[in-house]
Amino acid sequence: MAKRPNLIKSSRKKNIRARTPRFFDEKYFGPEPSWGEEKPDRTTLVKAYNWYNYFYDKKGIVKFLFDHYPRDKKEIRFLKRLDNNDIPSTICYQARMISRGCKLPQESLDYFNQKIKSMLEKAKTIHEENLEEKKESPKPSIQDRIKEQISDYIAEIEQGVDLFTKNNCNSEFNMYSWLQKNNIKSQQSNAIAEYYKPLLAELKEAKTKKDEQLNEAYAFMKPRELGRFVDFIDNIVKDASTWSTNQKTVRKTRKRKPPSVEKQVSRVQYLKEFKDYKLVSINPADIIGAQELWVFNAKYRVLTRYDAMGPSGFMIKGTTIQGFDETSISKKLRKPEEILPRVLTGGKRILGKIFTEINSKESKPNGRINKDTVLLKAIK
After folding, report:
1. Distance CA 285, CA 268 (A)
2. 3-state DSSP call for residue 94?
């Protein structure tokens, strides 16, 4: 005979007041069931279940289980992760009945414990999935942060441009001083210059008076004011370009020697072999300096291609790939056994078509490598 799980011998009783029965309810259903020393038969149990079902809604029924839980109270914190609809009403009635002295038959106790076991397994699975989602949740990439910084800088410069046009094309705004004051980096400064080049070309074209649309657009400016506006934007572009070049020169003198390959890959955790699909990882040292990297997350069946941002290729810091471009892509595989062999054996043409053939939602990788990651291929 299967051993019955231990139940707590005594429970603190709590009084849950049902809604006050109307005369009709009290006459035909009576008060809440009470229990003696004898174990109730099936008919008596069914009548008790019907009584609770009549007087309480689902929320009140589930509250019976949590308030009168006859096992280890620590299990409740897991059960509360479940939706109310995932909790059978019968075990809630039984928890309440046990607290009121009901000696349930063995088959009812077995049913109670079996249902609690399956509910705990489901609740723990939900908890683990939530933890994995938090771990895998993508953080803003370096590229995204740079774009956001550039956008903020341009918004601040635009205020200076607006003041210039509103003040009859006169302003004390000095672009080079502003760049110096805010210690703008070379990449951001160069992006600012590129942003204002189209406007500068438009203003120069407007100054020639050859384009009717531009003549209409800048009709509110006198020729002298338009000339000042051209010079003002021209200074913004030149100062931003000059500052960018100067910062590159300064940076060269501070350039540090990159860490050795051995040091970069010393902390990398990856899946060396995945027998289900006959996969074996490459040496993580092959990633350093590569221009393209293919990896496969065996746990979630996600295939990822990393594209290097520049000619120096990838680097690794801790367990994270660095230096990958925003063109990098991830997709979940429905049939890994068909796609993965093509990744391993395919050339440039085949690899270029693989993601267009995978019919699943595209996502952006975060660069992290973990114990479920198979390192499929690195292309120099």
Report:
1. 10
2. helix
Cα of first residue to Cα of last residue in the chain, in angstroms, is 65
Q: Crossing angle for the helix pair 175-182 and 142-166, nearest 10 degrees?
A: 140
CA 304 to chain centre: 16
Sequence length of the chain is: 380
Q: CA nearest 335: which of 353, 362, 357, 306?
A: 357
pLDDT on residue 2:
43
185 sits in the region (left: phi over 0; alpha: psi -120 to 50; else beta) called beta
Q: Residue 253: left (phi > 0), alpha (psi -120 to 50), or beta?
A: alpha
Q: Count the neighbouring beta carbons within 10 Å of the beta carbon of residue 110.
A: 14
- In degrees, rounded to 5, the angle at the alpha carbon of residue 368 between the alpha carbons of residues 346 and 315 is 75
Name the stretches of the chain with pLDDT < 50: 1-23, 253
CB atoms within 10 A of CB 175: 23
Contact 326, 141 (CB under 8 A): yes
The SS3 of residue 279 is strand
Residue 117 is predicted with a pLDDT of: 92
> Three-state DSSP class for 374?
strand
- E-strand ranges in the chain read 273-274, 279-280, 292-297, 302-307, 315-317, 320-322, 329-332, 362-363, 373-379
The predicted structure's pLDDT at residue 112: 92
The burial class, CB within 10 Å (0-12 / 13-18 / 19+), for 243 is buried
Residues 340, 294: Cα–Cα separation, whole Å = 10
362-363 and 315-317 strand pairing:
unpaired
Q: Where are the domains of the chain?
A: 23-136, 142-253, 261-379
Q: Nearest to residue 367, comparing CAs of 327, 332, 328?
A: 328
Give the residues across from 314 on adjacent strands: 288
